[in-house]
Amino acid sequence: MNNEKDFTEKSLRYMSHGAIGCAISHVQLWKKIAAEINDNNYLIFEDDVIFNSNFSKSLHAALRNYPTNTDIFFLGSRNERQRDIKYFTNFNYCRSFNARLGAFAYIISSKSAKKY
Known about the structure:
Layout: H1 4-11, H2 17-34, E1 41-45, E2 49-51, H3 55-64, E3 72-78, E4 94-96, E5 102-109, H4 110-115
């Protein structure tokens, strides 16, 4: 989404109030990340993520394989239209508690956050 008008007109039409609040939280977080001077990567989790017992090992494996040419690296999400999303295929370290849709674990850089 290139601006907040796109966000409200294109995305909010079919979203629940909870999903809207969650999306706004992510956008606000991306704005903070985009304001950073460095180009660090940021690991984002939803507040209801449940980690499995091999979380640390799986996270380290994912970070070793992190593609630097991607904007958002999804570690866990649910989406009805996932055909255009590429995942780290063997990454099974967390799940969202009772989530129907959403990106409950991902990595984004400040450079990528500036695009949104």
